[in-house]
Amino acid sequence: MATKTLTIKPLADRVVVQPVPQDEKTAGGVYLPDTAKEKPMKGKVVAAGPGRMLKDGSLAKMEVAVGMTVLYSKFSGNEIKLEGEDYVILQEKDVLGIFE
Fold it and tell me: What is the greatest pairwise CA distance in the chain?
């Protein structure tokens, strides 16, 4: 599988996340229609900005890096579509955790 190059570079402390698709059926085996599915809250970071600018002019180091799988707030960020793929642009503060 060829690696895609994103045509967008996030600024400051923003990250671009590609949501991980949700399961089509529940643990009990019931298939969910699209209208009943919840928004995904887990995704893979595909791009990250350089960091937030501090008052003294230095950059705060990002804790999130490309390739990490993260958990983010359900209704945070801005959803975009690039080259037929869905992405979410979030601020680093909207990332709740990193999966190991």
Answer: 55
CB atoms within 10 A of CB 82: 14
Q: With respect to residue 33, please indicate whether it lies within any of the assigned structural domains.
A: no
In a domain, 84, yes or no: yes
For 81, the domain range is: 14-21+38-99
CATH number at residue 85: 2.30.33.40
Burial annotation 35-71 (CB, 10 A radius, 16+ → b, else e):
eeeeebbebebbbbbeebeeeeeeeeebebeeebebe
Q: Is 14 left (phi over 0), alpha (psi -120 to 50) or beta?
A: beta
Pairing of strands 42-48, 95-99: unpaired
pTM: 0.78
Question: How do residues 11-60 score in pLDDT, each as one tens digit?
Answer: 999 999 999 876 665 567 666 665 555 666 899 999 999 999 999 999 99
